[in-house]
Every structure is written in C-alpha cells, then in structure tokens.
Design brief:
Blueprint lengths: L4 E3 L6 E3 L10 H14 L1 E4 L6 H9 L24 E5 L2 E2 L2 E2 L22 E8 L7 E5 H6 L3 H7 L3 E4 L1 H8 L8 H6 L3 E4 L1 E3 L6 E3 L5 E4 L4 H15 L5 E4 L6 E5 L3 E5 L10 E7 L5 E3 L5 E3 L4
Parallel strand pairs: 2-3
Antiparallel strand pairs: 1-2, 3-15, 4-17, 5-6, 7-15, 7-17, 8-14, 8-16, 9-10, 9-13, 11-12, 18-19
Bound molecules: N-oxalylglycine and manganese (II) ion (MN).
Manganese (II) ion binds next to loops.
C-alpha cells in the first residue's frame, strides 16, 4: 500500500490521509510511514482517538522510547501510568500542575541539550485553545542548503556547545533553578552544528536555544552567529505553523527540524498535549571527503 499524503506547506510536512493510527497496523504500513516521515520531516495525522497505551505502542514501532527525566524537586511531567508519555500542559488538577507548562516556547529540537538527542517526537493534542496555541516547525535541511556560503564555511564541520546549565533559567524562567545535583546530571555537550542525517545522509543545520558557543569562535561572536543561524533557519520559506485541532498527532524528526510553541494566553485557556519521544543516537557530521566528527561530552 502507498500512503495517501497531502503536503502541509512548501517548506515542510505532509498530512497522512489514509491511516488510522488507532487501528492495528502491519509492518508494511509502518515502513511506509517511516519513509514518508524521512521524506517530509514531519507528518500530521488527524482525528487520532487512542489511549495512552496505544500512543506508546505505536511509537515503539518506530524505535526505542526515551523516558523524559524529571527534575527532582518538581512534580514529574510524565503521565502517572505511562512514564513514556510526557505531558505538555497548563492544566491543574486540585491546584497541582499535571504537566510541563510553557514547554518549548522557543526554537529547539528535542534533547539537543543531551548527549543523545531524541530521534523523534510524537505530540498528540487532547485540548487546544481556540485560535491559539500553534506550533511552528522549521526544515533545517533546507535551511542548511540555503546558507550563505561564507557562513557555511565558518560552521561546516564545527562543533557547538549546548548547555542546559547555562540556559535553563533563560529557557524555563517559570521553573526552579537547577540544583547542583541536577546540574551534574546534565553536563554540557558538543554537537556538530552541521549534522548528517543517519538515514537520509542529508546535512541539516543543527542549532537551537540550548546552543551557547561554536568551536573556534570567540564567545560573543559565537552567540551572535547562533542568533543569526536561528533567524535564518526560521525564515518563512523553511517553516510551517500548525494550528492544532483536538485529535491531531504530529510526528517530527528532531534530526532535521526545529520547532517552537507559540505563546498563548495560558491564564485564560487550557492546552493539553501528550508526547512520546524516540531515543536517538550520537549525532555526527561526515564531510564529503569522508572526515567524520561526532558529539561528545568533555
Ligand atoms: C514538545 C514541544 C511544543 C508545543 O512537546 O517537545 O516543544 O507546541 N512542544 O507544545
Ligand atoms: Mn520540544
């Protein structure tokens, strides 16, 4: 069977029209979904009505699952019965938050601050505010391919330092600061800022809101360069903004995309989403001549 697909935009993404994710799926369909995912970077499925167990079981067909580590002193943001599900939500029950509020309000890819960034993520919308709460997605393969050659020469084959410790308070101002123990558990990691996709072989720009420094570039200049690269990657020609409907599920590839939750009025409205996360492997960059660099933790 070939999947019936409809592009979401010229930049990125396709909607899968012919699959009900809640139904039993054969290996052939899973292989088709994976191929379409690699082609389009993000896939949208509409009207998905499934249990957390089905959400987890489907994701597992695509790879091993990553369990989001909780930060010790706050309530866990994982589903109480399914730790493989991270709850992205501003909903409170009995005054207690049931998920992570303001998750991803800023351009990033999931796990970019970890030694093993996440391969993919599958976010399912259970409750969405009317007319807001969108998520934007950027195609970082296209962004890489359109880089100014002079900028590309400055970053090609270089590593960048991604730091939870330095950026935590900035990216999550509503969360408590990290404890010393948490800091020790989330060491800085150097990732290739031009990254070879392990399945397609294509190069993507790999930068995001946890990146703080580029190898060989003075700190302040590197910060400005990271900002310029981010602005470049999120130009309209590389991005698609999704207006969620209840039941939408989006599967994205963190190796060749970035995404950003667009801030909404979270005092007035509830937004409730559940995410499964696919474990990734060590990012690397393979130069056309064959030289290879990969991520490391000093
Ligand atoms: C995420 C994330 C954005 C959103 O779940 O990884 O960044 O719009 N979410 O909820
Ligand atoms: Mn995210």
């Amino acid at each position: 069977m070939t999947l019936e697909l409809r592009p979401l935009s010229d930049a990125i993404g396709a909607e899968v029209l012919s699959v009900d994710l809640a139904s039993p799926l054969g290996d052939g369909v899973i292989a088709d979904i994976r191929a379409a995912w690699l082609d389009h970077n993000i896939l949208l499925f509409r009207d998905v009505d499934w249990t957390p167990a089905q959400h987890v079981a489907f994701t597992r067909r695509l790879g091993g699952l990553h369990i989001m580590p909780g930060l010790a002193h706050e309530t866990s943001t994982n589903h109480p019965d399914y730790p493989e599900i991270m709850v992205v939500s501003n909903v409170k029950r009995n005054g207690v938050p049931i998920g992570l509020r303001r998750a991803g309000w800023g351009w990033h890819s999931d796990g970019e601050d970890k030694r093993l960034p996440n391969m993919g993520s599958l976010l399912h919308a259970l409750k969405v505010p009317p007319g807001q709460g969108d998520t934007a997605f950027a195609n970082t393969t296209k962004a890489y391919e359109a880089l100014d050659p002079a900028i590309c020469a400055r970053i090609e084959g270089k590593l960048g330092r991604f730091s939870r410790v330095e950026r935590h308070n900035h990216n999550y101002p509503d969360l408590p600061p990290l404890t010393e123990e948490e800091k020790a558990g989330r060491p800085d990691v150097w990732h290739p800022v031009t990254r070879t996709h392990p399945e397609t072989g294509r190069t993507a720009l790999y930068i995001g809101r946890w990146a703080v420094e580029i190898e060989g570039v003075p700190k302040a200049e590197g910060e400005a360069l990271i900002e310029d690269l981010t602005q470049h990657a999120v130009k309209p020609e590389f991005t698609y903004t999704h207006r969620w409907r209840k039941g939408d599920a989006i599967l994205w590839d963190n190796r060749c995309t970035q995404h950003c939750a667009l801030p909404f009025d979270d005092e007035a409205y509830e937004r409730h989403m559940q995410r499964t996360t696919l474990e990734g492997d060590t990012p690397f960059y393979e130069a056309p001549g064959g030289a290879r660099i990969e991520s490391y933790v000093p």
